[in-house]
Specification:
disordered N terminus; mainly beta; elongated; 4-stranded antiparallel β-sheet; single chain; 5-stranded mixed β-sheet
Length: 454
Amino acid sequence: MPRIVVTIDAGVTYEVVKRPPANPAAGWAAVPNITLAAGATASLAQYYTGAARPFGATKPLPAGVTLDPATGVLSAAATAPAATLAGVAFTAGTAVVDPPPPPPPPPPPTTGMFERRGVAYRPDGFGGSAKHLRFCKVGSLWYKVAGDHSRSDVNSGVDFQGGRQEIHSLDLATNTWKMHEPYWPQKPAGSVALFSPDDGAACTVRDEIWVFVSARNGTLHQPPWTPGAGNITAPAGTARYYTDQVMAYNPATKLWRIVCPTTADMWGNKIWHAVHDPVGHHVLFISQQGNGSNYVVVLDDVTGATITQWRTGPTDRGYCHAGGLAADIAARTAWTWETFYSSVVHEVNLDTGFSKQIAVCPEPGTGNTESSNAIVGPTKSGKLLFFGSRLHILTLATGAWQSVDREDGFSPSGGGRYTCLTQFYDPVLDAVASIGAVDWATSQDIGAYWMVRA
């Protein structure tokens, strides 16, 4: 579109836009640049053939420069300083200012609770095919010790995504990821280790991480200890790997030890969440033992021996093992969530084992015994966070619920929406880390994780 440029002092310009006039006799005529020195004048009217008045500018003129709206005369005072006029258009008659480009669309409404962090561990890492990850904190670092994810040790020779043996560390405060140990670490002679921590539970017990495994992905051939051949072979120079023991891992020494044999409570892909109670000297986990049989199993936190079982969840039927186990040790209280049928929330006394229903989560029952819906918290403000198809927040003091759309996750190229499947609460940061999702069709890597604050 034709334009008229008026130059005032050191090459700084106003711009006039020539648009199609209302009739052939109206509009701006094309003219050369005009230089308006200090103390001089120039008329815009001589270049405008239309009858419409007044003349104007799209923003205030610089100090010492004036425009007569009736005549179109620009005047510069004798002491007028150099003007900064670029990008300003004059108007008159059918000459109008080019409309500014439309502003970008506003971001979708947000609660301010979700902070996208990046990136999750590379290479491969915890992206489009990661679930049931178990992170435990020792010192200032979180350690991934169990779960299903893409192969992050590219030299492992094992492609199974279930029960990956790599151990990763994460500093949530600085978003620093490291490979703490590869899939097959070299170990001192006589060392032991845990094989294929698939669908497991884990918790920090003093300076160790106890890991319970209720399912395995792949069978192990471990010469010279294991007769016969499996589809995974442990290389020489590694540890003696166990599949039937509760194991404890020390991140400082990078050594495992055997705590105790696994029991029937831990079998059958039904133990996913555990908590350490240092006051009662117990390790607690939820075991699902058939339809309607949900127990908090109480172990001695030194020997791993089973002390007792506490009934929790609905008395008729339900699956609490998938919904998590949140605890406030100082308040001597834990919470469970039945996610299959009723979505009821139970409160468990950590001293007596007494359990009672306190709420029903707004999240519908999933009908899935391997649901990744989970309860996390409580936060410093006394809230429990329930991660389902939406985020449901229970304020314990009032019993009030707040439900918000989840922003943690990704929409793959093939369509659909996948939310993160693993959450863990950091009491120092008073925030929940939410990581990993599943799109088995594309294995698309979301390249990020989220911090959630409520």
